[in-house]
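#struct-pred

JT: dropping the chains for the assembly here, can someone run the whole complex?
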Amino acid sequence: MPRAVREQQMLDAAVQIFGQRGYMAASMDEIAELAGVSKPLVYLYLNSKEDLFTACIRREATALTRAVRAGVRTDLPADRQLWDGLRAFFQHTAEHPDAWSVLHLQARTHGEPFAAEAAAMRTEIVSFVTRLVAVAAREAHRDPDLPEHEVAGLAEALVGAAESLAAWANTTPGVTARQAASTLMNFAWSGLGALMRGRRWTPPPEGVV
Amino acid sequence: MPRAVREQQMLDAAVQIFGQRGYMAASMDEIAELAGVSKPLVYLYLNSKEDLFTACIRREATALTRAVRAGVRTDLPADRQLWDGLRAFFQHTAEHPDAWSVLHLQARTHGEPFAAEAAAMRTEIVSFVTRLVAVAAREAHRDPDLPEHEVAGLAEALVGAAESLAAWANTTPGVTARQAASTLMNFAWSGLGALMRGRRWTPPPEGVV
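RK: done, full complex below.
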């Protein structure tokens, strides 16, 4: 069997064990056994538990961002792009719960080098969403335009909401990927949509109780 | 000086150092120096770096949830409650950036016991927001009611959005707490508000490209 194929099998097993047991409790013995190889071979190919975990984070971060990008056709209207992107995101995280646990939970919980890997993926997704919100604002031809700061803030809010909702959907029985996507779309788009039409929620004046 | 006062001074210093340097790089020497006490006294009072960090997380989690609760008057309309809660949240995280870094970043990055402390605070905030969304839905007298699953999902989305936005606001020059609260309120309330009025965003039929 070619090395590349064997390596993918080891990563498959590692994502499953890291995702289900957590980084600390995961044992290299169990990963090797699940991959159907010897433990020395895992070390030979992937070097150490740290390097194996880093390889898992990188592979799964790439797979997730690729799935979201692939789900979106940039020639469609903005609300359709957002819906397709959300659906692709929640479908991927629902179909790969161990990978999502590695990215969202494990990578952020076990030290800065791993957290930095996950943060890089997040930055990429935030800029993808920022572009999408900016396009939506342009499509709406609003005058004055949404300030750049607000577009960036909305993208951050949307990504944070999606992360939180994916973690909740994966641990709450009976919540489908489509339901999670639809909840967030209704939350986000009706809000964003109102903003695009210049309909703001207006805070009460300062100092009023 | 009474022990309780000294302890608070040590915690003040520790939150600042942990928040700015990160948990790993923070030194007990620096914390003791900033608190104006000897290092052995810090160990005598707080036992270990781990226990000191845990005490910081607990204190700051309590302070944040208390600030949010104190900002909200439950006899006001739901949108006003949400706005007041968001404003209290972003004001607190802006005024205590080191505490927010400890709670949002450091506590989640350095092992499961610390992450569990931060998760407990998050659970409390999510249930507070869930109640708020449920009250808003009841006020709107919609028939049929928003399903319970959707209310829980909306609360998760809102909390995730707020966390993400607070981290962004604290690291982006020129973004005030009021702007961050207003961005999220517009994003969230117009969306939630539309939902309450029964105005849903409707997905395109399945299978259509």
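JT: nice. The radius of gyration of chain B is 20 Å. Chain B has a mean pLDDT of 88.
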